[in-house]
Specification:
Blueprint lengths: L3 H9 L6 E8 L2 E8 L4 E2 L6 H4 L4 E6 L8 E7 L4 H4 L7 E5 L2 E2 L3 H9 L5 E7 L2 E7 L1
Antiparallel strand pairs: 1-2, 3-4, 4-5, 5-6, 6-7, 6-8, 8-9
């Protein structure tokens, strides 16, 4: 592979829950690491009423870039799902929930668990900031 893009593309072709051996050089020595490809996380219906409103959406954390501050990418929305009815759209980047910054899925789940049944979701859509109220 010639670049990080080549690696990203190769990983993208692997199935979730599959394992791969990654070989690389560090300090002049060949290293081998076994990695497991994790599936994109989906919130289940059993996590409370607010989480039900997110059912049908798939999320993944993304690193900051020149275009956005990082956050949680809404990677997929099932048609006619509760997440779709809540107003989320594929490609949205969630950057905050209930006035707290969100950088990873663990933080997102923690904020949702502490919510009082209402989520104020700050997101970026088509390079525009907006809020969604999900209850």
């Amino acid at each position: 592979m010639e670049s990080g893009s080549d690696l990203r593309n190769a990983v993208g072709l692997l199935r979730a829950d599959s394992q791969a051996i990654v070989e690389f050089y560090r300090e002049g020595k060949l290293r081998k690491v076994s990695v497991k490809i994790k599936p994109i996380e989906e919130f289940s219906r059993s996590n409370g009423d607010v989480v039900k409103r997110l059912h049908g959406a798939r999320f993944r954390a993304i690193a900051p870039s020149a275009d956005h501050p990082g956050g949680i990418l809404v990677g997929q929305i099932a048609p006619n799902s509760e997440a779709s009815a809540s107003g989320l759209k594929e490609g949205d980047i969630i950057i905050g929930i209930n006035r707290k910054k969100v950088f990873d899925l663990k933080t997102m789940k923690s904020i949702i668990a502490q919510s009082n049944g209402v989520l104020l979701v700050q997101l970026l859509r088509d390079n525009r900031a907006l809020y969604l109220v999900i209850q």
